[in-house]
Amino acid sequence: MQKIKSVKEFVEKMDAAKKVNPKDLSSDQDLSIGIMNLISIEEHLMFSGAKTGKHEFYDQINVIRDMRKRMMQKIIPSYEGEVWCISKHLLASSMRLFEVGTKALAAGDATQAYELFDESYALYCIFWGLNMGMLGGDGADLKYVKKSQKKPVKAAPAEMPDVPAAGGMAKLKNWVKNAVNCCIE
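Request: output the structure for the sequence above.
Response:
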């Protein structure tokens, strides 16, 4: 496994990944947040139906689910294995941790809120890493994959979300921060 030897080399790999994945990531970021909310609406419809006994709430679940599936296809047009389902759960978990973090913040527990926000963002970054072909097959490498050639180019070692700031998750978060920018129009 070839390790990144300098910041310059890391930046070059990041730039190459942007060229390999020419999607309009700012629109896709907005869409991914919309998908998170559609997943939440599905959940709220189920709970509202259960709490009120009104089946009208249940009847709306498929309408929202179909919309969520169409929107997910815009970001994930093709996949292998269970990437679709993993992606849905990554977005749903990211949204839930964010919501619990906002409740902790409102309750005055900033430390807990910040930890939850960081975990939420880590899941969001894993979603993008997975769907941009940046997560390697052996779980040990963070790879940039050229979709057309399916040939991985090793970029940096990846570790689990609780890695120190210099680890693979920090590098994935940095890539998402730079490549997935909703403020670029």
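The chain has two domains: 1-23+137-185, 25-131.
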